[in-house]
Design a protein that fits this description.
mainly alpha; Four Helix Bundle (Hemerythrin (Met), subunit A); flat
Length: 175
């Protein structure tokens, strides 16, 4: 004999099987007020590093063994995948801060912000499409500008410090 609890459990399991629930994504629906452009900067540094690694990857010789060709292809694919993931993560981080944190009053105070955000999104998309170290470094510079404006909205001074990452570069931190 089935109890009501058991019936519900089976009913919902069958329902989920027939029509799986859609995933839900959110930074914070409370809102929590915790935003920081640090993740976007790290993602930009990762894009730079992947471009560096791709540029340093020696292509296999014409007479290379199949294993060497596969190893090259595998490394290139991994570097490219990581670069694309981090460029997309960067876009996501900027989109969340811009959409959830930035207010109309902030845009009035910092009128360059909408164009800067649009520029970052376009640069990140381009970084996904190309292996262009200079373009990736320009993307990081734009993310730095965004970080500086972000902290200004909180009346916090900033400073640039070395990233201490293999990619080099700097990151913007609150002073």
């Amino acid at each position: 004999m089935f109890g009501l609890k058991s019936f519900r459990k089976r009913f919902y399991a069958l329902s989920d099987h027939l029509r799986p629930p859609l995933p839900v994504f959110a930074h914070c629906d409370i809102p929590c007020g915790i935003y920081d452009p640090h993740e976007a900067q790290i993602a930009a540094l990762t894009v730079i590093r992947m471009d560096q690694l791709i540029g340093e990857l020696p292509p296999p010789a014409a007479d290379a063994k199949a294993e060497e060709k596969h190893a090259y292809t595998h490394k290139l694919a991994r570097y490219t995948a990581v670069k694309e993931q981090h460029a997309e993560k960067l876009k996501h981080e900027i989109r969340v801060i811009y959409g959830d944190y930035i207010t109309a009053d902030m845009v009035k105070k910092f009128p360059e912000l909408p164009d800067l955000v649009f520029k970052i999104w376009k640069q990140a998309s381009k970084a996904r499409q190309e292996v262009n170290l200079a373009g990736a470094q320009e993307l990081l510079a734009s993310v730095h500008q965004f970080a500086e404006v972000f902290w200004k909205t909180k009346n916090v001074a900033t400073r640039k410090v070395p990233s201490n990452q293999k990619s080099g570069g700097e990151i913007v931190l609150p002073a």
